[in-house]
Q: What sequence folds into this?
């Protein structure tokens, strides 16, 4: 008699998020014999995910925190869970995390897991807004069997703010395929002028990722290094409040024509070798995957001194941390590494060693394997 497969469903913003953030985890769970689903807003990557044997359910998620689509998405999840009767529902991202945990609890799903990819509030969030977010997190945490956090600071915050008990939340970390992201990879020809000093960033086109700070900083850098060039990898986000069109760079006269927007790519391992310095001047992060990839590729990193980035980069050892929203300090750090290539090389080599030790995706896989086995038993 054939044993019925255990059914699990991961909930995320979009099939883009599933492909670029979760797919290795889902494929690992498949290899353990689970029947794996993904519930998300369907975009161009849904077919690719389904071709790997993962079933995809379209849910009308909006990334806007205050959207009239949320009740629709909740009802879609509610009836979907009632029909499929999953053994495990595992949620990701703020909106799917909130709606998914509630719907899973109301429909009696036996195991409910949430991964925190970075709380939506931080130290500089206005008081009332912060209280609302904390209340929402406390509410849905009551629905969870287990909560994972990608960074250690959010574990401490969750306990300090009474979002959940220390027994319920566990550190997960983040990881990448170290064989794919290898410092020996050859660079792809991207049309950058020969001899140019290349700065790289991998992030969605939203102001929160610090793009405008970076553009302003490069206006200073280009005066000392006129051959500077910026490569940006990441999708446009026209529906986000802080989304911007790439034409905005034309307002920065000194770097106009020196920025190449590559859009969303799945060959980042071929793009990173072409850059000299990797930069992420973000204002808010959970545990940025792009920093792990850049570290594995032995790139010197400049990032902002915020939650998540602090965990990925050791200031002065594997990269440089600068204050958030500070183009002046960002420019100083870029100029310093361009003027001191030996220092940049040392930081890059140390970053690679940190990646090997701490950012191997197999470490994350093992934690997921053990957690699923424990909660299902």
A:
């Amino acid at each position: 008699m054939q044993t019925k497969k255990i059914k699990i469903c991961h909930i995320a913003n979009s099939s883009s998020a599933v492909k670029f953030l979760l797919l290795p985890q889902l494929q690992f769970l498949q290899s353990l014999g689970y029947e794996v689903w993904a519930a998300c807003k369907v975009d161009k990557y849904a077919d690719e995910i389904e071709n790997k044997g993962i079933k995809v359910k379209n849910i009308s998620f909006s990334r806007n925190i205050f959207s009239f689509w949320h009740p629709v998405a909740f009802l879609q999840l509610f009836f979907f869970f009632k029909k499929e009767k999953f053994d495990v529902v595992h949620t990701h991202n703020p909106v799917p995390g909130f709606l998914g945990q509630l719907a899973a609890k109301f429909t009696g799903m036996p195991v409910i897991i949430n991964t925190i990819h970075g709380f939506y509030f931080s130290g500089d969030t206005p008081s009332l807004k912060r209280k609302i977010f904390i209340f929402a997190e406390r509410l849905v945490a009551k629905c969870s069997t287990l909560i994972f956090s990608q960074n250690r600071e959010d574990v401490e915050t969750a306990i300090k703010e009474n979002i959940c008990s220390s027994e319920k939340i566990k550190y997960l970390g983040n990881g990448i395929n170290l064989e794919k992201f290898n410092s020996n990879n050859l660079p792809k020809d991207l049309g950058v002028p020969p001899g140019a000093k290349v700065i790289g960033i991998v992030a969605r086109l939203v102001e929160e990722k610090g793009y405008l700070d970076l553009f302003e900083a490069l206006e200073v850098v280009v005066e000392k290094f006129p051959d500077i060039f910026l490569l940006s990898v990441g999708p446009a986000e026209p529906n986000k409040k802080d989304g911007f069109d790439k034409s905005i760079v034309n307002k920065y006269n000194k770097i106009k024509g020196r920025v190449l927007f590559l859009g969303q790519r799945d060959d980042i391992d071929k793009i990173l070798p072409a850059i000299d310095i990797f930069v992420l001047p973000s204002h808010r992060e959970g545990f940025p995957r792009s920093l792990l990839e850049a570290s594995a590729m032995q790139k010197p990193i400049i990032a902002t001194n915020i939650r998540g980035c602090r965990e990925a980069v050791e200031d002065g050892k594997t990269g440089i941390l600068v204050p958030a929203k500070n183009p002046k300090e960002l420019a100083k750090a870029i100029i310093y590494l361009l003027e001191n290539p030996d220092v940049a090389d040392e930081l890059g080599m140390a970053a690679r060693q940190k990646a090997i030790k701490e950012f191997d995706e197999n470490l994350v896989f093992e934690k997921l394997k053990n957690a699923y086995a424990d909660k299902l038993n």
In short: DSSP finds 13 helices and 13 strands in the chain.
